[in-house]
Hints:
Blueprint: H1 3-24, H2 29-48, H3 55-76, H4 81-102
Helix pairs in contact: 1-2, 1-4, 2-3, 2-4, 3-4
Amino acid sequence: MNKLFVSIAAGAAAGVTDIIPMLFQRLDWYSVASAFFHWVITGFIIFHLQILRGWLLGLIIGEITAVPIMILVFQKDPSSIIPIIIFSAVLGSILGLWAERYSYNY
């Protein structure tokens, strides 16, 4: 598999993981789509950026790319910031580990 496919697939997997709780909360489709595509793009960035390797890169990029989402969410529901920070750290770190394992060989 090539690096592009792997990066998009990993980002999509993280996106699905992130939106499952959102679907149970019956959030609007714009929010769900935004979160899903956020992780697809974040997965692409993590897999193709080689400044750092592994979970640390994923953690940093996951948190940095979540800042605009946190700002938008804070206006309506400030208590949602903590789950966003946690999900961004966990999913970003997992993407970083996957990137280290599966993409640096290409």
